[in-house]
Automatic annotation (TrEMBL), chain A:
Active-site residues, record numbering mapped to chain: C224, H303, H387, H391, H420, N424
Lineage of the organism: Eukaryota, Viridiplantae, Streptophyta, Embryophyta, Tracheophyta
Enzyme class name: transferase
Record protein name field: 3-ketoacyl-CoA synthase
Reaction(s) catalysed (UniProt annotation): a very-long-chain acyl-CoA + malonyl-CoA + H(+) = a very-long-chain 3-oxoacyl-CoA + CO2 + CoA
Stored InterPro entries: 3-ktacl-CoA_syn, ACP_syn_III_C, FAE1_typ3_polyketide_synth, Thiolase-like
From TrEMBL, chain B:
Organism per entry: Ensete ventricosum (Abyssinian banana)
GO cellular-component term (any): membrane
Keyword Signal annotated: yes
Protein name: 3-ketoacyl-CoA synthase
Residue span, Beta-ketoacyl-[acyl-carrier-protein] synthase III C-terminal domain: 334-417
CDD domains in alphabetical order: CHS_like
Length: 496, 454
């Protein structure tokens, strides 16, 4: 048996403490400088004695008017500074659609349906293998129209699904926040693969009788990362319009997009995409800060469309028989990794503590000037965030990100469990994951959350939120009846 | 202490100066300038002649004789010439089963031609674009059309893209609203907006009359335009945005369902235009004008309107005419010099013209655009603007009002101020001399005029 690498172990432990010490030193530099200075001043004051201090004060000849003037000026300068800051954007609350049990698609049902619909045994077995390794559970849901044999993807059924998922989520949100539909100033809806005319935003305006001067926008075709694009747009609008609130709806409508052919690259979405929707209420009123759950800190968007490989990675096209579907290329993981790296390069300086940035900068300089063989330093994002919501695009995506960002199993637990319980609900998955973290009672005041979404294009978008009040469990949401069963152990391969 | 006074005074002065500077900076950097716009001119082999139109109609074997007559009547009364364009899939006989490639090619052709020319004319490189908005109502593939553009022109990674879909014929002002809001949060930003409509995937092949209108009226068209809030580019800009008003009547069920994409009784998808559409249009129009008038009209005109209204109400019993519309009408021409009306159809243009009190000269650009290009949906406003520019009507300090209607039901408007004398021919370059056509002899009338009596 080879000798255990004990020397390495002890040196790595020492290294760990050195690193900790270094982080404390750099991040609290100003405080560390402040303490000796204050100590010196205090000692000096003690040495001088009370009479000398009073004498010193009197010698300054300050009278009341001057004190008031300087006080007024300081207050004025502070007010100028405060009013020039950008408007904060608060997340009041959000609600996720909880699919009814009748829409459940256990593996057995899915395979039985596929066998009855498809003529090709090979593609049935291919889908079975995908399901086995997918990380999905037995409780994911598909819309009613897809349960028919063969599926009935009519426009009416698509609208019905949209109404079911969106209206349920909004009704939940209204109940939780006491929001009056007439008070909504901005409405942003994103649904990638279904865009009827009039739009889904018009459908919401019609159902909830919103005002005629509501600013509505309907984004479509923007993929699984479109939820964060909607948040970005809502944030820009809230910067311009004072004392307003915004309702953001993120969803994906599955009905019209079930692929009926046999091309393998196009069968993957059938296996992974499931029903879901989220409704989010944002506000920029300062008085709402007390009731708000989170504050939006940053949104960073990266688009890799200029690179052909990235652009073709998730592509809607027709197969050889003319059946439309979305094909996923084999390069998806590599491209996701590259897109993430670009996104991190922008978001890193905004969120990482000084210690990490300095290390990264020094390693970069070292690689460029001293020795290009130095390993690039991967900043430790666990220092910047307490919680991670990674888009539950598929097991491979979560694995890849866990490896790239060096995250522990607990950090990616929300993503894995959401994929297991709800499947890939596209742009709304980030909100199911956030709800999981809250339901587990892990969300404390001051915690920072990083939401990362990937989507066709190829885009990688991130949002950073800061928690404003500890969220007490039990939490009302899609996890309320099953959170105690989680986390579950998801085997590599589920034998079917 | 003197020192304290000096410090206080300096701090106060600095604070005041910083506030003033922030205000000034905010106003300077938040204007929305239109640098240029390019209207799409498809190749001539895509023109829809009378022969072609009647062939296409005849190809639908499900139609009865009365259906043929109805369609021909619509075409004859449409005010559209033989110079309008259609998508290749329809011309080549594939209107009932267009492939995904057909649909993508149709939009690609429009986007690429217009964007190539736009970048060439403005001399701005695609790398410098910060915001990209595409709005095509009835076609939203994955990856989005914005991604197609980013891929083709190799734009930067941090471009903010927005792909609007499903927002109907009045989506142009919506895209401008989006960009305008972004301009107010960032400095020195350059935005490119592409508006078009997709006809190939939306051909209706059933027999429901309310859905066949779309087939007859919509034509291929599109426009790309570039906006910026950079004050250093102001000298090159054509127009500056003054105000924008959006009115959405979706809360009313009739208005919401008067223009809706749905399946007919046999399960074929089409765009249904109901009989309550004119009423919804009137309500949306009134709502929009109510909010637009105070922003657009001079104070004198507003005061006159209030006085007329009071007089009408006080002397109502003595007035022979109790028609409210004629008694207290606002004269929009006091605040607006040119009107870009959505070319929804001859009836729409006439109705809007009457409501606003416009003359034949004022509605001429819209009428001629309908004649030359047909109803190109979202981009129609830009063809109308192009006509005015080609006719050299747009002079410095003129005010241009763009007004459009769309499914939802929405009425959106925006007011521009012209920054310098404009005289580009644009898409009208080769045919502007033939306009205005004194007699709009409809070629369809000659061939199918018998339908009117039948």
């Amino acid at each position: 048996m080879p000798m255990a690498p004990l020397p390495e172990f002890s040196s790595s432990v020492k290294l760990k403490y050195v690193k900790l010490g270094y982080q404390y030193l750099v991040n609290n530099f100003v405080t560390l400088l402040f303490i000796p200075v204050m100590a010196a001043v205090y000692l000096e004051l003690v040495r001088m004695g009370p009479e000398e201090i009073v004498g010193l004060w009197r010698s300054l000849h300050i009278d009341l008017i001057q004190i008031l003037c300087s006080f007024f000026v300081i207050v004025f300068a502070a007010a100028v500074y405060l009013t020039s800051r950008p408007q904060p954007v608060y997340l009041m609350d959000y609600a996720c659609f909880k699919p009814p049990i009748t829409c459940r698609v256990p593996f057995a049902t899915f395979l039985e349906h596929t066998r009855l619909i498809s003529s090709d045994e090979k593609s049935v077995r291919f889908q079975m293998r995908i399901l086995e390794r997918s990380g999905l559970g037995e409780e994911t849901c598909l819309p009613p129209a897809i349960h028919y044999i063969p599926p009935r993807p009519t426009m009416e059924a698509s609208r019905a699904e949209a109404q079911l998922v969106i209206f349920s989520a909004i009704d939940d949100l209204v109940r939780k926040t006491g929001l009056k539909p007439k008070d909504i100033d901005i409405l942003v809806v994103n649904c990638s693969l279904f865009s009827p005319t009039p739009s889904l935003s018009a459908m919401i305006i019609n159902k909830y009788k919103l005002r005629s001067n509501v600013r509505s926008f309907n984004l479509s075709g923007m993929g699984c990362s479109a939820g964060l694009i909607s948040i970005d747009l809502a944030r820009d609008l809230l910067q311009v319009h004072r004392s307003s609130n915004a309702l953001v709806i993120s969803t994906e409508i599955i009905t019209p997009n079930f692929y009926g052919g046999n091309q393998r690259s196009m069968l993957l979405p059938n296996c992974l995409f499931r029903m879901g929707a989220a409704a989010i209420l944002l506000s920029n009123r300062r008085r709402d800060a007390r009731r708000a759950k989170y504050r939006l800190v940053h949104v960073v968007r990266t688009h890799k469309g200029a690179d052909d490989r990235a652009y073709r990675c998730v592509y809607q096209e027709e197969d050889a028989e003319g059946l439309p579907g979305i094909s996923l290329s084999k390069d998806l993981m590599a491209i996701a990794g590259e897109a993430l790296k670009s996104n991190i390069t922008t978001i890193g300086p905004l969120v990482l503590p000084m210690s990490e940035q300095l290390l990264f900068f020094l390693t970069l300089v070292g690689r460029k000037l001293i020795n290009p063989k130095w390993k690039p330093y991967i900043p430790d994002f666990k220092l910047a965030f307490e919680h991670f919501c990674i888009h539950a695009g598929g097991r491979a995506v979560i694995d890849e990100l866990q490896k790239n960002l060096e995250l522990s199993a607990e950090h990616v637990e929300a993503s894995r469990m959401t994929l297991h319980r709800f499947g890939n609900t596209s742009s709304s998955s980030l909100w199911y994951e956030l709800n999981y973290i809250e339901s587990k009672g892990r969300m404390r005041r001051g915690d920072r959350v990083w939401q990362i979404g990937f989507g066709s294009g190829f885009k990688c978008n991130s949002a950073v939120w800061k928690c404003l009040r500890t969220v007490k469990s039990p939490v009302d949401g899609p996890w309320s009846d099953c959170i105690d069963r989680y986390p579950v152990d998801i085997p590599e391969v589920v034998k079917l | 202490m003197e020192l304290l006074w000096t410090i206080s005074a300096t701090l106060l002065l600095c604070s005041l100066l910083s506030i003033l500077w922030k205000e000034f900076d905010r106003r300077r950097n938040r204007n929305c300038y239109l640098l240029d716009y390019v209207c799409y001119k498809p190749s001539d082999d895509r023109k829809l002649s009378t022969e072609l139109c009647s062939d296409v109609i005849a190809r639908n074997k499900r139609l009865s004789v009365s259906d043929y007559k109805f369609l021909l009547k619509v075409v004859v009364n449409s005010g559209i010439s033989e110079e309008t364009y259609g998508p290749r899939s329809i011309i080549e006989g594939r209107e009932e089963c267009p492939t995904h490639d057909d649909c993508v090619d149709e939009v690609d052709d429009c986007m690429h031609r217009t964007l190539d020319e736009l970048f060439l004319r403005t001399g701005i490189s695609p790398i410098d674009v910060d915001v990209l908005v595409v709005n095509v109502s009835m076609f939203a593939p994955s990856p989005s059309l914005t991604s197609r553009i980013i891929n083709r022109y190799r734009m930067r990674e941090d471009v903010n893209t927005f792909s609007l879909a499903g927002m109907g014929c009045s989506a142009s002002p919506i895209a401008i609203d989006l960009v305008n809001n972004i301009f107010k949060t960032r400095k020195r930003t350059l935005a490119v907006v592409v508006t078009s409509e997709s006809i190939a995937p939306n051909w209706y092949c059933g027999t429901d009359k309310s859905m066949m209108l779309g087939n007859c009226l919509f034509r291929s068209g599109g426009c790309s335009f570039m906006l910026t809030n950079d004050p250093s580019l102001k000298h090159r800009a054509k127009m500056s945005l003054k105000c924008l008003v959006r009115a959405h009547l979706g809360a009313d069920d009739d208005a919401y369902s008067c223009a809706i994409q749905r399946e007919d009784a046999e399960g074929r998808v089409g765009f249904h235009l109901s009989k309550s559409l004119p009423k919804a249009a009137v309500l949306a129009f009134a709502e929009n004008l109510q909010r637009l008038a105070p922003k657009v009209l001079p104070v004198g005109e507003l005061a006159l309107y209030v006085l007329r209204g009071l007089r009408h109400r006080l002397w109502r019993s003595k007035e022979a005419r109790t028609d409210a519309a004629t008694a207290a009408r606002v004269n929009f021409k006091s605040g607006v010099d040119h009107f870009c009306l959505h070319t929804g159809g001859a009836a729409v243009i006439d109705a809007v013209g009457r409501a606003l009190g416009l003359t034949k000269y004022d509605v001429e650009p819209a009428r001629m655009t309908l004649h030359r290009w047909g109803n190109t949906s979202v981009s129609s406003l830009w063809y109308v603007l192009g006509y005015m520019e080609a006719k050299k009507r747009l002079r410095r300090k003129d005010r241009v009002l763009m007004l459009s209607f769309g499914a939802g039901f929405k009425c959106n408007s925006c007011l521009w101020e012209v920054l310098r004398d404009l005289n580009d021919g644009g898409a009208w370059e080769d045919c502007i001399r033939a306009y205005p056509q004194q007699t709009l002899v409809n070629p369809f009338m000659e061939k199918f005029g018998w339908v009117k009596e039948a």
